[in-house]
Structure formats: C-alpha cells, structure tokens
Amino acid sequence: MSEHRRKSPQSQSGGRAAARRAAQQPSGRRADHSREADPAAPSDSYEEERPAGGRAEARRASQRGGRRAGHPEGPPGRGGPPRKKRIIDYPRHDKYGWRRWTPSWKLTTGLFLAFCGSLMGAASIAYAMVETPSVVDTAVAQNNVYYWADGTEMAATGGEVNRQILEYAAIPKSMQNAVVAAENKTFWTDSGVDPRGIARAFVNMAKGGETQGGSTITQQFVKNAVLNDQNQTLGRKVKELFISIKVGNTWDKHEIMAGYLNSSYYGRGAFGIQAAARTYYGVDADKLNVSQCAVLATLLKGATYYDPAGATEYDPAATAKDNLRRATVRWSGILDELVIEGKLSKADRATYTKFPMPDAPKKNDKLGGQTGYLVDLAKSYVLNNTGLGIDEKTLSAGGYEIHTTFQKDKVLALEKAVSKVYDAKINPKKRPDTDTHVQFGGASVDNATGAILAIYGGQDATKHFTNNANETGAQVGSTFKPFVLAAALRDGVQDPKGTGDRILISPDKAIYNGDNELKIKRFDGSIWTDKEGNGWRQTNDGDESFGPIDLREAMRESANSPYVQLGMDVGIPQVRQAAVDAGLLNNGSMNHNDVPSFSIGISTPSAIRMAGAYSTFASSGKQRDPYSVQKVVQKGRAVYTHEATVKSPFSKVVADNVTDVLKTVVEDGTGTNAQLPGRDVAGKTGTTDGNKSAWFVGYTKQISTAVDMYRLDDDATNTNRKFEEMFGTGGEKKIHGASFPSTIWRDYMMEAMKGKKSLPFPKPEPFGEAWYGGGASPSPTPSKTPSPSETPSETPSETPSETPSETPSEDPTPSETCTRLFGCGDNNGGQNGGGQNGGNNNGGQNGGGQNGGNTGTPSTTTSPPGDPGGGAGDGGIFGGQQG
C-alpha cells in the first residue's frame, strides 16, 4: 500500500464547498489509482472518510430534515433548516413520533409551579380586595307584613322580633362548648375554614351518605350575619370562603363566637341565644345549665326537625314524637362529646339522664286573639303551597308582603258569634266538671273561589296554641253522610248478585231499614264481621227506630243505620274517594279499615276542609281547594300569585241532588236552627258517639261555613290528652250539632251574608232508580214511633193538642217523600208544632216542632218563649233534638 494512504485524515472543514468537491471525486478503486498518480491529492476517499452510518444514515438524516450524524453543521435534509430549542420546548425539538408530544418532566413541573403561583397570586389579590365585614351593616332583620283581603295591614312580624344581642362575657361557657362540640371542634385553632371538614363532606356525599356540611362556625357566622345569603350557589360559597378567611385572620375568636350565637336561628321566631333561652326555658342565657345548652345547640341543626314541640305546620314529618326522638339522640351525643373533649366531667354527665323538655310554645302578644291564628295559617301556606322553596328560617328573617284572603269583618263576626254562645252558656266556674276545656273551631270559604274568608282558631292565640280551624282530632260525625250520598249517586250501589254492575239510585226512591241496632250486612247480603268474627249492630241517636225510610228522610232525621248500610252497599273505598274528591285530605284519619262506621264520620277532617268540601256541592260539583294567601311580594315584586285549579269530581245533577237533600235538613230536619230568613240554606248536623264532638256544616249559594265544638285540654305538655264527653255542658242534657254549633253558624252567616243577593239553589233534575236496602220491603209500612223531645219544654202546654196518627191512613209508594210517608205537612196545632218533625206551624207548643220549623202566628194556646228561628228555646237545645 502506498505510503500516502497512511496519512492522518484531513480536516473535514471547508463547509459546503468541500462537500461539493468531495461529491465530484470518482469513487472506488479508480479513485485510489488516481491518487497514486497524484500523491498531492487530498486523502478524502469515500470508504475511509465518510461519516459513521454510511449512506443509509445520510439518507435517513436527509429525509428527517436534520443534519447527518457526525456532522453537527452538516447539510440540511429535505425537511428544511435545523430546528432550534425554544424556552418552552413543546412540541419537543429533538424527539419524533409520540415522544415529540409528550411533555418532559421539566415542562410538567414548571407548568404546575406556574399554575400554583398564579392561583396563589389570584387568591392573594382576592383576599386583599376583601374588606373586613361589619355585622351591623349586613345582619339587618326585616318585617313580614300580612294584609287583609282589602289590602289594609293585618299584622307585622319578622326577624326583628325576639332578638337581643349579648356581649361575649354574658354568653355561658357551656353554650360555647356545646356548639363547638356539635358544630366545629377545631374552631379555637382553625383559620376560619376547615379543609379536612370540607373534604369529609364531599367524600360522604360522593358515597351517597347523608348530606353533610363542611362549614366551620366562622363560615356559618359569615353566611348568617355577613352575607345574609342562604343560597347554595358556587359564587356564594367562594365568597363565603374568602370572607371567612378574612374574618378568621382579623377577628378575635371571641367576637366570632358571640356573633355566631347572637345571629343564629333557634326556631319559634327566636334569633340569638338570649331570645332562645327566654323562648325555650323562660330564663336569661346566663342561667342556662349545660344540659339546656346542649338542647339549644341541637336546635341549630334545624329547629323544624329538632324542636320537641313539633312543627307539622311546616312539614308533616316534623311531629312532636319524631322531633323529640331526634333531639334526645343529638342532645345525648353532645353531652358525651363534651366529656371526650374534657369540658364536662363524667360525674356531672351522669347527673343529666333526663332530657330537659323545653316550655310549651308561646305566641307573641302582638299576635293575640285571632290574629295569631290567621298569621300562622298564612305562614304555613306560604311555606307549603306557594312553591317558593323558602324555609321557616328564611321567612322569619323577613322581607315579605303576604296578602291573605281573610276578610276582617267576617273574622270579627265569627269570633263574636262564638263569644256570644260561650259567654251565655259556658261557665267553668259554675260547672267545672262539664264546662272546662270547651273548644270551638270554625272556618268560612268563598264557594266561587275557594278563598278562606274567616277562621276561628280559639279564644286567644297567645293562650290557646292549637288552631282549631285546622285538624284537631275531633270526629265529624253525621256531617260525613253527604259524602256517602254523593258516592251512592255518582258510583251507584253494587249488584248483590255479584255481577259487578252498579245501580244508580234516587235519594227519594231508595228505601233503607232505619231500625235501631240494625245488623249491618255486606252488599251481597252476608253478615259483616270483623277479623274476630264480631258482627256490627248500628244504633241511632237516642236509640230511635225509623223503620223503612228513604235517603232524603234519613238525612233529615240524621238516622245512622240507613247510611251505614248504604256505605256498605256502595263500598267504603268509593265513599272514601267521594269525600277526597269533594275536598277532604286523604290523610291518616281517612285511612281507617273499611269498617261500617266509616260512613258516619269517624274521620277527623279540619273545619277548613269540611267547609271546602261542602262548597263543592254548593258549586254544583266544581271543586276548589281552600287557600289563604292571594299574593306574596318581595322587594316590590310579586313572587307568587294564586291560580285556582278547578276540578269537576261530581256532575251537576249529582251535586244539586245532594244540595236539595241537605236543604231539607235545614227546612224541617235537625238543622232548622240554621235557617236564614229569605235565603236558601243547605247543611248537616253532626254528633259523635259519647257526645265528644258536635258539628254543623252548611252553605248558601255564596258561602260555606263549618263550626265544631268539643272538650279537650290544651295543655301541650300532656301527651295523653283525650276528648271528654259533653253531657251537661252548657247546662244542656246533651250537645248536638243542632244546638251550639248551628247557633254559631246562624249568627255568623246572618252577618256574613249582609248585602249579598239572595240566590236560590238550582232545582235538581230527577235522578236514579228505586232501591231497597238493609232488609227494607218493596212495600214499606212505616213503623216510626213518635218520641218526645229529649229536652221538653219546661212549661207544658195548658191544652195539649191531639197526637198525630202514628200510622198513615194510606200505604205510600216507595217514591213518596216526607209529606205522606211521615206526616210532616202543615199542622195547625200539633203537639210539637206541625207534626213531630216540624213543618209550617201556626201554634205548636214548642214554637216550631221538636226539630224546628217555621213558626207562624201563635195560637191562643199559651206556649213558653221559644227561639224565634223555630227552636225549642232555652229548654230545647236551641231548636233541635239531635245531630
């Protein structure tokens, strides 16, 4: 090999020109021969001096657009000039394929640090921009103003009521310890927020557990007293977070604790610890013991569900029993937590074994008389029926104008009518065994709209806390019978042959057995028995037997056995549905087993609902739910306006026939004491077994009104309250719906109907078929035996009139009504004035008959003074024998 072939490689410098020259040289051995011929030629043969990787590598480098390996400054490939590394190397300059788009750890770390820095910077700016809040500027309680239907102010109540701010030193340490143990154990050491608490809340909710708050006491204080905003929005939460941090870092913990306890809501309209102490235990806050403090701390979780007195007016689930159970568990847990935290010794804890029951609820004196009942009813309607989605706490904070449907003159008239009877007849001092705990309730509804015009809730809302216009537990008795009749007319009675067919019957042609102690049967004729195999014998009031009797007369006489058997023939489920369709609530009292007595009123609807249900018949089958709030205004804008929903559960012919039968009751039946001169009136009396409640529910074309009476101790601490008998109450032998309740109804309606046009009820169309039930014969022979009034006149007639014939001279057909069947036509001188059951009387002994009647010109026979409306005077239970 030639010597020059062993020379050191030449420098590869020279750039592109050298590269071109090298490319122009011949390759292979021929190049070597030329070099031997010319020793001075440079030694840059292709085999010896080409870059590592050879031609393939050069080709790949060219295709990638980069430099050839081993040539940092080599020629560019087809991709263009070489790329330069950037400050943010993304996409990565020296990677290819998916690696080119994968961030390096340096880039990832840098971005994370930049994000954290930006977030901290933004938070610092936001924190710096938050001003130290002022409770005085933000925690301003407002009024709620309630208006009468005419727009005049009825009452003002709201957040400013029952709040007294206490200094920190006046707040018992036991109360502070209790709320810390119950709400925020890290309060004294945290910075206003608790990240771990918030994380626990999110984890618990994510697992589907109970909704759990992660707020600290500081955050709750900010929400209640600084933001004054209960909305669960992200914006509010973020705002609350920053303000809480600011407050936690700038306020003294003692200030925050005092602010929280002074601003919190404890239920019953009490804001702040001092108001709560006075409301629940009747003492100042500094007199509370640790057990009482634990109860008040329990209420902070939600007074509606932890007040032992219950709050069913806001949520039916918040019963006194359930609330007491929940409160007791939480109260005990707080005391145990105090022991764990070293704030209460085990010895002291052992002394608190009995739940410290708070005082019974008391009403604000400004809401005395009927006003408190009206406000409570409207308040309950706003919370439960308007769809505004506000709770008791939010409403109590104020700021709402609530326009009610109550008419002041009618409220006063109803209160006056009750007071008149109470003052004249009820004397607890004279008759302590019979006249104590006497209660009246009432409600009046506009038939055209469903608006509640007036209620009577009790003598005074600040002394008697239960609203008697709402459901009280008093059974409605025979005032339930119109729903049985409506079901029979609408749904018909069942075919006893079991075909599944139903027969629509006529109130005048359907004849039922009215005997006392009637053995009740199923629709198919089999004897009804309960689970123990016991049968049912239905009694009538006064153990009176009526024999075969049509449904109109059975309603007029308030005979029980025909309507109990009718209910079985129709079916108790159909009867229940008819009552619900008319307007009664399908609540617990309506869900009795399908026992025969269901048809005679063992359920306990409210006076409001009874008036509303009868209004359906007055409106020819159009049903409207009763309501008490027409409009709610907030910040000058109407946020709710009532819109009536009208249903038609009964046809006009059915409803008008029911009305016509109830009109008979008032014209010459048990309800004659409710007559209004010159006006059509329909209604029904009601009396329950044991004489524990009495009702009268009636209506004109325009207004329906229900009045009830019962005896029940209103002591809220007595958990075993029972309805008491009313034999002898008010000096009467027995209380019927025809007595005190009908008197109140009449006196009120005389005032309520003043200035209103006298409108007649529609004349009913003939309806239904003949029917014989309860063993009645197709050719009935009336067996009704006249019986003297339960409360006869104190002065007997000087010249007794002839007793009407007990048996009519002719056997009436089943379709004939009272005029022939029971001799209740005109009678000029009957013993009881127009026959046993009344009629037009021109000289009866008791001025209108045993059960009333229209009293005309007195005869020459001297009679004792009677009720001008056709009753039996003071000795005759206000003109009616029975309910």
Automatic annotation (TrEMBL):
Domain Penicillin-binding protein transpeptidase as annotated: residue spans: 445-702
Reactions catalysed, as given in the entry: [GlcNAc-(1->4)-Mur2Ac(oyl-L-Ala-gamma-D-Glu-L-Lys-D-Ala-D-Ala)](n)-di-trans,octa-cis-undecaprenyl diphosphate + beta-D-GlcNAc-(1->4)-Mur2Ac(oyl-L-Ala-gamma-D-Glu-L-Lys-D-Ala-D-Ala)-di-trans,octa-cis-undecaprenyl diphosphate = [GlcNAc-(1->4)-Mur2Ac(oyl-L-Ala-gamma-D-Glu-L-Lys-D-Ala-D-Ala)](n+1)-di-trans,octa-cis-undecaprenyl diphosphate + di-trans,octa-cis-undecaprenyl diphosphate + H(+); Preferential cleavage: (Ac)2-L-Lys-D-Ala-|-D-Ala. Also transpeptidation of peptidyl-alanyl moieties that are N-acyl substituents of D-alanine
Keywords: Carboxypeptidase, Cell shape, Cell wall biogenesis/degradation, Glycosyltransferase, Hydrolase, Membrane, Multifunctional enzyme, Peptidoglycan synthesis, Protease, Transferase, Transmembrane, Transmembrane helix
One term under GO cellular component: outer membrane-bounded periplasmic space
Pfam families referenced in this protein's UniProt entry, alphabetically: Transgly (PF00912), Transpeptidase (PF00905)
SUPFAM superfamilies on file: beta-lactamase/transpeptidase-like (SSF56601), Lysozyme-like (SSF53955)
Residue stretches of biased makeup (Gly residues): 826-855, 868-883
Stretches with biased composition (Basic and acidic residues): 29-38, 48-60
GO molecular function per UniProt: penicillin binding; peptidoglycan glycosyltransferase activity; serine-type D-Ala-D-Ala carboxypeptidase activity
Domain Glycosyl transferase family: 151-313
Family: In the N-terminal section; belongs to the glycosyltransferase 51 family. In the C-terminal section; belongs to the transpeptidase family.
UniProt protein name: Penicillin-binding protein
Species classification: Bacteria, Bacillati, Actinomycetota, Actinomycetes, Kitasatosporales
